[in-house]
Write the structure tokens for this entry.
Amino acid sequence: MPKEEQINTKTTPAKKEVNKKDDPPKDDKGMPLSEKDIQLFKRYGKGPYNDSLKKVEDEVKGLNQKITELIGIKESDTGLSLPSQWNKEADKQLLKEQRMMVGRLT
């Protein structure tokens, strides 16, 4: 009679999850980054005038928004004016008038 194989039903203990917030940032070799490296990554892609340009752009956006609020006119996707500026009576009168026919005779 063949001997029954024992199946290992024991589960391996789950690996303890590592809290990544407590670990210092590491480079591709697994070495912790220095403060100089971190500052370099923060400044990467930024020019010497980046902060002053960002400040001016924010100021321009704020002024544009303020102007739009003061004017009170919003642009329409259809290109139509606001309903308060429509002149329905004049439009009805134009529809009733006789139109001129334009053509070319040879």
